[in-house]
Amino acid sequence: MFQVTRLPAAARILGAAALSAVTLATLSAAHPAAAAAGGAPGFDHLTVTVRDAGAGADGTYELFCNPHGGSHPDPDGACAVLERDTRWGQDVFAPVPEGSVCTMQYGGPATAHVKGTWAGRPVDATYDRRDGCGISRWDRMVPLLPDMGSAGRS
């Protein structure tokens, strides 16, 4: 038979704090962008690839949220738009539902691919502006995706 020895509350708290500090240091070391941003990394990391949106908008960008950082041109705005639309049980990156009635307006050839992790869930979403539904879906993600303004609209 064995005997269980209970530690005093202060020792348990100090032990938990030490374990948290070690975990935080390990995670920061494993994630240079988050360490450079001055905080522990969140699990929110997205790679955004934009094509055919025009000079200055095309490219591949890394985005980290919580803390905000990466090569994205507006990490604070991009994270804010995602945080604003994140709701329990809803996919902020959901495609246009099948069978949706969309206007026959063309928003230009721009496309985007967003891949990574948001709110602890995998993300693999594509965006285009080939009709009114696609334009609306894209525009809801500005500034994660570039603001196309009236470019390409008929």
Write a structural description.
By secondary structure, the chain is an alpha+beta fold. The chain has a domain at 42-87 and 102-140: Subtilisin Inhibitor (2-Layer Sandwich). 31% of the residues lie in helices and 20% in strands. The chain has 4 helices and 4 strands. The chain has helices spanning 9-30, 32-36, 75-85, 132-140, and strands at 44-51, 59-65, 111-118, 121-128. The protein has a 4-stranded antiparallel sheet, covered by helices on one side. The protein is globular and about 40 Å long. The termini are far apart.
Summarize this entry quickly.
The chain is an alpha+beta fold. The protein has a domain at 42-87 and 102-140: Subtilisin Inhibitor (2-Layer Sandwich).
Give the topology:
Elements: H1 9-30, H2 32-36, E1 44-51, E2 59-65, H3 75-85, E3 111-118, E4 121-128, H4 132-140
Antiparallel strand pairs: 1-2, 1-3, 3-4
Task: Offer a few descriptive terms.
154 residues, alpha+beta, Subtilisin Inhibitor, four-stranded antiparallel sheet, 4 helices, 4 strands, globular
